[in-house]
Structure prediction request, 460 residues.
Amino acid sequence: MRTHELVLHWIEKQLSDGQLLLGGRLPAERALAEQLQVSRTSVREAIRILEAMGVVRAGVGSGKDAGTVVIAEPASALGSALRLHVATQHLPVADIVETRALLESWAVARAKPDTPALAEAARLLEEMDAHAAVDDFLGLDVRFHVALAEAAGNAVVSTMMGSLREAIEGYAAALTANLPDWETTAARLRAEHRAILQAVNDGDGERAAELVAAHIHGFYREAGLGQAPD
Amino acid sequence: MRTHELVLHWIEKQLSDGQLLLGGRLPAERALAEQLQVSRTSVREAIRILEAMGVVRAGVGSGKDAGTVVIAEPASALGSALRLHVATQHLPVADIVETRALLESWAVARAKPDTPALAEAARLLEEMDAHAAVDDFLGLDVRFHVALAEAAGNAVVSTMMGSLREAIEGYAAALTANLPDWETTAARLRAEHRAILQAVNDGDGERAAELVAAHIHGFYREAGLGQAPD
DNA sequence: TAGATCATGTGGTCCAACCACATCAAGTAG
DNA sequence: CTACTTGATGTGGTTGGACCACATGATCTA
Prediction:
């Protein structure tokens, strides 16, 4: 077993034993190296991996933001990994879109009306009305859809939804170049968003699921999924 | 931007530009360090991250298995990340089970009969008849379910299915201690597996989806999901 | 009292050296 | 000529030490 894996397993055990909690700090790199009788390099490689997985965050200096702190951000971590595999063409973008539609349909079908997540989703819709620029709009769009997914109360589903969306965010932005008129599309997306949210708040999960699936597939079909942007 | 991130982005660009293909080799660590004008340490940290994401594999020595080679194993990589987040109790096991049931139901409902993946699934069932030990059985069980999921032809769904199953494999093994009699449960699981595969091969996706959801939830309910094993 | 300065501790980076390993080529004994 | 041994080469794995940038808090000073 390689040395950094030993460090990795030690830290994972600390986590699963509850000796290292969310928000807690790892020992300083030099201290941990001495404690485990390995080099600081090996400790650092282990921390790099945990950082890539969204389990810790490393900060220099001293005080609140300093040191290596345990966090819980699986979505961005999984998103990066998926993006790389999309880059190697091992995971087709079409499959990602299809999976995202599957997860999100399930989520909105089971979303509870009048939850904080839905209130946040409604707020994001207001904000989207004021931001017409493609990048701003898409950024808010991601947050709206993730908020929707969170309303179902399944952390794994919303995490995966977010990571899938993030993995192809750059791709989606590039696809907008294929659209005949962004303003027209944006107006349609806004209307669809409101209809989806309305259905969820009405407790009509079945209709919400249909609308969200049509919403997702509609955008990628219009933008020409699989075609290179001009 | 930190130095290892620079290396990471350089490699990601090589991948998305198609200059680095599946099975291809990265430049040697020392050569890459000189080429990018960074230290070997930073190159190594980048490679560690890619390795954790299942994008490359590092091998010592010379010849076929040597060097850093581009691979495509997202399932095990995502599985490790999910397992760590389960360890921090940020992702509940129940949510993982529910998500897995969702993905797998969808997959079997769309699985095409008479595909190579289903033939492999059938072969695995034969093998499971001969392996009664818990660990062997569960290992084959994972492969059976992944083979089933592959028959739907969506790489992202089967990848996520596999990673979810892997993330809680240790948990599932521990849960078997809660079962009153493993042999009885194993016999039931074998029968359910055959019924699922039969439904898929009959083209009855709807029935297959119902069976697989009942199969998954049934096991975890019987084993006492959420309860500590004795 | 208010500001400047220094000490401390953190992660970030780099370097030089050595190890373990696998392969291949050259040399050597048969 | 064959078969084995030996050494050279190139790979990632590991280590210790040095220095940097940064943020904070204590201390000194005007």
Q: What stands out?
A: Residues 2-4, 38-42, 59-63, 65-66 of chain A lie near DNA strand D (CB under 10 Å from a C1'). The two ends of chain A are 49 Å apart (CA to CA). Chain A touches chain B through 47 residues (CB under 8 Å).
